Amino acid sequence: MESLKETFKIAKVLASLFTRSSTPGEEKDYHDWIAESEENERIAKQVLNPENYEENKLLLSEFPSREAWGKISPLLGNNYSTNSFSKKGWLYAAIIILLLIPASYLIYNNIASEEIKEISPGKRGANLILADGNTLDISPETYNKLEYSMQVFIINKEGINYQTPKNKPQIKASTNTLLTQQGMECNITLSDGTKIHLNAQSRLTYPICFSGENRVVHVEGEAYFDVAHDSERPFIVKTPHTSIEVTGTSFNVRAYNDESIESTTLVSGGIKIACGKKEVELTPNQHFVYNKASRQTSLEDVNTELYTSWKSGAFIFMNVPLDNIMSYLSKWYGFNYTFDDEFAKDIRIGAYLNRYESMNPIIDMIKSLNLVDIKQQDEVIHISKKQKQ
């Protein structure tokens, strides 16, 4: 909402002038603004006249300022922090907002009136960054163009496959990177036959052909691994905080930079995780967690479907905070969201959802709990505590 930001910027400038706390930059913005129109000059004279202050202040008596500010501030962004402005300055800025946008309170009070648009699921696609720096766009729209055999791999609608005759023997060591954006997923088969399903907003770095004593790849984000057995050459997955060693097994890794934990869930086989000075061995149906803030680790027995169902086309949540769920879903559905209060973040949800269907039924399901309000404004989903009627 750029117009709102610009309007509030002018309101803050005028409030700074009135409270005699303006900066040279604000004074320049003021002169530029009044030069734009006679109406701006008229409003400035009305606002800056001290005799009008009490009269203007009366406008606030019918305006729910605290509630409205809670709805306005997320739309303005971080550049409008109350920490850098006096209490009197903010009060006068609120008054000026009413003068500049007389019906503003109706806009903020009726933020729910905008219908939530269709939120479509993600799709197959990725960017493949080659060792020479070139990038291939892999998506359903480009499959026909990319469905060909290169020197060391094949690209088609199934994904990327490095297990080809042309990939043997290796001529020289080269590394490629597979990068999925928000709302993308991609399958890849490495040269040893290991199959990887890369989730949205994730990065996988790997050699085009393994050599040496170990098979090493790096991952950020989420990926499900089905590792080809090779007792002579352990397969090692490195995340920002852990190193996972296997010889042949199936497991899920979740290691997003914007999340507070990293986790590994073992489905079959056995793995050994090194985390700092600790080393932990997992058996099937165990879930390992590293907490980034406390630097503590934990291990528990779990139903692995809760952590791996995404690869099969479902989301399963059992008593999960809404904050975690929205972080999870936004990566796949590609939407932006904000919590307008802390209460809404902690609402716990249980649900079984189809990953390949629209997200709108999910929103309807959450709203049906009658605990939170979910609204959309300027392509952003706003979530807040349910207001009493």
Automatic annotation (TrEMBL):
<dbReference type="Pfam" id="PF04773">
    <property type="entry name" value="FecR"/>
</dbReference>
<feature type="domain" description="Protein FecR C-terminal">
    <location>
        <begin position="315"/>
        <end position="383"/>
    </location>
</feature>
<dbReference type="InterPro" id="IPR032508">
    <property type="entry name" value="FecR_C"/>
</dbReference>
<feature type="domain" description="FecR protein">
    <location>
        <begin position="177"/>
        <end position="262"/>
    </location>
</feature>
<keyword id="KW-0812">Transmembrane</keyword>
<dbReference type="Pfam" id="PF16344">
    <property type="entry name" value="FecR_C"/>
</dbReference>
<keyword id="KW-0472">Membrane</keyword>
<keyword id="KW-1133">Transmembrane helix</keyword>
<protein>
    <recommendedName>
        <fullName>FecR family protein</fullName>
    </recommendedName>
</protein>
<dbReference type="GO" id="GO:0016989">
    <property type="term" value="F:sigma factor antagonist activity"/>
</dbReference>
<dbReference type="InterPro" id="IPR006860">
    <property type="entry name" value="FecR"/>
</dbReference>
<dbReference type="InterPro" id="IPR012373">
    <property type="entry name" value="Ferrdict_sens_TM"/>
</dbReference>
<feature type="transmembrane region" description="Helical">
    <location>
        <begin position="89"/>
        <end position="108"/>
    </location>
</feature>
